[in-house]
Amino acid sequence: MALLEVKNIDKNFGKKKAMTNVSFNVEAGHIVGLIGPNGAGKSTTMRAITGLMSYSSGTILFDDKPITFSDHQALDKVGNLIEYPAIYPNMTALEHLNLYAMDTQDSADFKDLMHKTQIDGDNFGKRKAKNFSLGMKQRLGIAIALIRNPKLVILDEPMNGLDPQSVHDLRELIRDLADQGVAFLISSHLLDELQKLVDDVVIINHGKIIETATMTEFFSHDKVRWVMDTSDNDATVQLAQDNKWTVTVDEGHVQISGADNLQNVITAMNHADIQIQTLNTVTGNLEKSLLDMLANDDKGE
């Protein structure tokens, strides 16, 4: 049984449908990326799961217990950072952790948590939150999300404001917790970073789930592409079309896919007396796969 089950959720704002038949699961120990364009319904979905917003129909279960706008009992083992951390300007990092741990009997070890989220250094200390940078606030928000020793953590843009080293450290922390059985549902526009982290993806567009898959399954949609600079792009495009390969030209670079293998492409171009000046093989790109899927979904609207 999945740790989190989202079943057939509908949400209407007046006549506007914000969520339509949204369904997906999150397994214990899995890191799931909730991905889609701005306005697709990611934050709405996360707010419904954390009981911050009512929904029109459907069921949300965490650990086999229902979550609704009026019933939050199941949320004691759910941590979240949605939109912006709820941080009080005149309180220190440690005072925030004490505050958010008040209503739980199984809080994380403060010292260990502060070290793991890098809020124990000189930059924090006794300083009040009003003097924190965006990255410091974000790390504190992540620590707050973990204060209950949660089974499920929901993070909306957790890498916002973090420097590259902090992003790397956060990725390692999330993976370490997932290895211990903690589940994560993460939304982020930094798809290259998300690609390094998640096990499964849930793609949402216009308030509807258009794909749920493991990363391996998701990338099976993405054919190998050969990106090249040639001596004659127009002739290369015509050659690809004659061979019924998929071909596009992007910023002066020719992209070919659909051939059985690269050698077939090289041989055909040699026979056509087209010189390959640069060549790169591209596959498994989350951003490209997502954009292709969204484009196909929009065409079907």
Automatic annotation (TrEMBL):
SUPFAM superfamilies in the cross-refs: P-loop containing nucleoside triphosphate hydrolases
Keyword Cytoplasm: no
SMART domains linked to this entry: AAA
Gene Ontology molecular function: any one: ATP binding
Keyword Ion transport annotated: no
Keywords: ATP-binding, Nucleotide-binding, Transport
Residue ranges occupied by any ABC transporter domain in the UniProt entry: 4-231
Family: Belongs to the ABC transporter superfamily.
The protein's name in its UniProt record: ABC-type multidrug transport system, ATPase component
